């Protein structure tokens, strides 16, 4: 067996159906599929059974333990030379495995990963979220873009690894979030080769609304500090940017509020001082307006940049506008999680379990 596809699932039978169907369209067919239900209340066994005559698919169900341990469970029951780790909310183009095979035949690699795209069927908000998670203007291109500010670390939505390497490293850790980055860090520290396969891309749905998206990226920010505590050299400048952006937005918001308050005060004083000179109040009003403008200009410029870029990429002005909101949610959500974890882990000195019991260890 050349490849074993490991898919952890939690309450997503409809998405599993789409993923399994996309696997039936592959031009390269030497692979097995292992579905592991991670304590779901809405199982997908019936969905898997429908594909039994078209795919070499195995279905397992186990108590909930998080995605990392669920992947390990599936890996222990796999037979392929390479393990392909996918999230249940992805769809594969028909040339996915053929692209991986071509890359490996040209230049073997111990581990690899691919980028993601938005499918035409995705909603406008899903396309906006996809933009915010892959754009150079939000993530620095570290999730598989052509331009990137850090080396490529495979993510669990689209990751491949040689079986022997997986077993040597002991698979995924018990981290409930950020476990895929932890695994990628250990791949590099082990001295194994790892690279991006640009042609092995997937359609990735991610979250379906901004509230869920905020929670996801907030946990990613928390996970980044948890990873820093395990691997101090893993924290790069690119990882600080969302935190810096968040502080900048907070400071600009405060500056705007000060300008607004000053303007309101100036107008009130001008109304109550009609019988005398209002030169001082007029100067205060002008200064307040300039303060508000200075606070708004950086945010407006960034919003315009994102709107135009996302609008052109998606050929939709609406998606461009939604991408502005998604980008702010992505950066501020991550930044807020980053600073929250920094305070609890680095300043207060709490361990991962005590600091984030409710986030990771429900």
Description of the structure:
The chain has helices spanning about 15-25, 45-50, 65-75, 95-105, 125-135, 135-140, 165-170, 180-190, 210-230, 235-270, 280-315, 315-345, 350-355, 355-360, and strands at about 5-10, 30-40, 55-60, 80-85, 90, 110-115, 115, 160, 195, 200-205. It has 2 domains: about 5-125 and about 150-210, Spore Coat Polysaccharide Biosynthesis Protein SpsA, Chain A, CATH 3.90.550.10; about 235-360, no CATH class. About 55% of the residues lie in helices and about 10% in strands. The chain starts with a strand and ends with a helix. The relative contact order is 0.12.
Short précis:
It is built from 14 helices and 10 strands. The chain is α/β, with parallel strands linked by helices and about 350 residues long. Strands 3-2-1-4-8-6-9 form a 7-stranded mixed beta sheet.
Count of individual domains: 2
Secondary-structure element string:
EHEHEHEEHEEHHEHHEEHHHHHH
> How many β-strands, per DSSP?
10
How many individual helices?
14
Numbering strands along the chain, what is their spatial order in the largest sheet? 3-2-1-4-8-6-9
Task: Give the oligomeric state.
Answer: single chain
Structural class: alpha/beta
- At the fourth level of CATH, the homologous superfamily of the largest domain is Spore Coat Polysaccharide Biosynthesis Protein SpsA, Chain A
CATH architecture classification name of the largest domain: Alpha-Beta Complex
| Span between termini | 37 Å
CATH level 1 class label of the largest domain: Alpha Beta
Helix content: 55-70%
Strand content: 5-15%
Mean of residue pLDDT values: 91
Largest sheet: 7 strands, mixed
Could you tell me the radius of gyration in angstroms? 24 Å
Reported by name, the CATH topology of the largest domain is Spore Coat Polysaccharide Biosynthesis Protein SpsA, Chain A
Q: Name the poorly predicted regions.
A: none
């Amino acid at each position: 067996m050349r490849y074993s596809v490991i898919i952890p699932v939690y309450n997503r039978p409809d998405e599993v159906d789409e993923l399994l169907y996309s696997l039936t369209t592959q031009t390269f067919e030497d692979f097995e599929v292992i579905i592991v239900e991670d304590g779901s209340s809405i199982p997908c066994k019936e969905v898997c059974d429908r594909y039994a005559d078209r795919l070499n698919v195995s279905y397992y169900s186990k108590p909930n333990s998080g995605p990392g341990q669920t992947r390990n469970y599936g890996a222990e029951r796999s037979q392929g030379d390479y393990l392909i780790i996918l999230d249940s909310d992805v769809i594969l183009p028909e040339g996915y495995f053929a692209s991986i095979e071509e890359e490996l035949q040209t230049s073997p690699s111990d581990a690899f990963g691919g980028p993601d795209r938005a499918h035409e069927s995705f909603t406008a908000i899903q396309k906006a979220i996809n933009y915010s998670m892959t754009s150079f203007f939000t993530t620095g291109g570290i999730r598989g873009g052509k331009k990137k500010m850090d080396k490529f670390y495979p993510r669990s939505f689209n990751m491949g690894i040689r079986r022997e390497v997986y077993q040597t490293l002991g698979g995924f850790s018990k981290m409930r979030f950020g476990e895929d980055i932890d695994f990628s860090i250990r791949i590099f520290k082990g001295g194994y080769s790892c690279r991006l396969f640009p042609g092995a891309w997937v359609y990735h749905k991610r979250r379906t609304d901004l509230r869920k998206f905020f929670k996801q990226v907030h946990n990613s920010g928390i996970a980044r500090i948890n990873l820093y505590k395990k691997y101090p050299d893993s924290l790069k400048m690119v990882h600080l940017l969302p935190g810096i952006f968040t502080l900048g937005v907070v400071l600009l918001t405060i500056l705007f509020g000060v300008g607004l308050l000053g303007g309101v005060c100036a107008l009130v004083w001008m109304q109550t001082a009609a019988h005398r000179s209002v030169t001082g109040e007029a100067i205060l009003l002008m200064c307040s307006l300039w303060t508000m403008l200075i606070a708004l200009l950086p945010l407006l410029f960034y919003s315009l940049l994102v709107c135009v870029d996302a609008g052109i990429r998606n050929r939709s002005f609406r998606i461009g506008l939604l991408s502005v909101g998604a980008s702010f949610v992505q950066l501020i959500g991550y930044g807020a999680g980053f600073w929250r974890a920094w305070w609890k882990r680095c300043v207060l000195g709490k361990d991962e379990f005590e600091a984030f019991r409710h986030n990771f260890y429900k």
